[in-house]
Amino acid sequence: MSEPHRAIGWKYDLPAIHAPSLVKPGMADLDPPPNHVDEIAIEIPRPPLKLRGLSLITGTITLIATTSITAAAIYYNFFLATRADLEFIALFLGANIMAILLLAPYIRMDIEQPRDEPIRFNRQRRKVYFYQYKTDLFHPFSIKRWGIKPVVYDWDDLTAEAYRLYAPMGYGGLMEKVMISICKPGTNEVIDRVLFADSIETGEQYWAIVRLFMQQGPEALPDFVHSPWDWNEGVHSNPFDQRAPKVQWPAEMDLESRTAPPEEHR
């Protein structure tokens, strides 16, 4: 069987789901800790934006500026100039439309992305539930391609992967993340890949915690130093976070992800 395909920037795989997991130094001091832990499931936080509002502010200012300049250019050509320069007008209109198409997706993400995109690992069902906000940069105004679209996968089909790559300077240079790839059952064909953590160190700690929980249960976890953060009702220092959409699981998935299967299915 061939090896699973890895994306650009892949460095190594984290320990497999069945590899023994132990309590590591610093694990108890993880901040933020899991959102919730009980006998059935553990929920890991996944805040999507570190600085919400930046794209909204800068993008809006840029669009106002480009639109104003375009409007002024059109007004000058049609009402003040001796002869309208259609090529000049087309150039400004094209630049304005391009700015809208480039900036609109990031402004929309700033407004619509939820406060958290948690992942629930159900030990009894051996299922993993991802609360996800989907985006499509090439269709910034689409309704179907954007929005909350949770997915569920089997625990046995998951692999955690560490990625490290250098991005353009505007993105801060070195970028690290841990992704979870999902393979088609019984094969190495990757059918999906989702973000697990935005740093390798944090991702390794969460992955060790999740594996420990799935293998041995909540009793094996350390006593976390920090209290879980209430992402929906907590007091956020950033005013844009305070106005972000709250996490709201679909009712059926919410119930399933927090409960054990009926006795006949165990």
- Number of DSSP helices? 5
* Percent strand: 15-25%
Please trace the helix and strand order, writing H or E for each element: EEEHHEEEEEEEEHHH
The biggest beta sheet is recorded as: 5 strands, antiparallel
Mean pLDDT, nearest integer? 91
Number of strands: 11
Helix content: 25-40%
Radius of gyration: 23 Å
What is the total number of structural domains? 2
Q: N-to-C terminal Cα separation, in Å? A: 30 Å
Shape descriptor: elongated
Low-confidence stretches: none
Given helix and strand content, the structural type is alpha+beta
Largest sheet strand order: 2-3-4-5-8
Write a concise keyword list for the protein shown above.
266 residues, alpha+beta, 2 domains, 5-stranded antiparallel sheet, 4-stranded antiparallel sheet, 31% helix, elongated
Structure description:
- The chain is α+β, with helices and mostly antiparallel strands.
- The protein folds into 2 domains: 10-48 and 117-234, no CATH class; 54-112.
- The chain is 31% helix and 20% strand.
- The chain contains 5 helices and 11 strands; from the N terminus they run E-E-E-H-H-E-E-E-E-E-E-E-E-H-H-H.
- It has helices at residues 54-80, 86-112, 200-216, 239-242, 251-258; strands spanning 10-13, 36-37, 41-44, 119-122, 127-130, 133-134, 147-148, 151-154, 158-166, 174-183, 190-197.
- The strands form 3 sheets. A 5-stranded antiparallel beta sheet has the order 2-3-4-5-8, with helices on both faces.
- A hairpin with a 3-residue loop joins strand 2 and strand 3.
- Helix 1 runs antiparallel to helix 2.
- The relative contact order is 0.21.
- The model has no long low-confidence stretch (mean pLDDT 91).
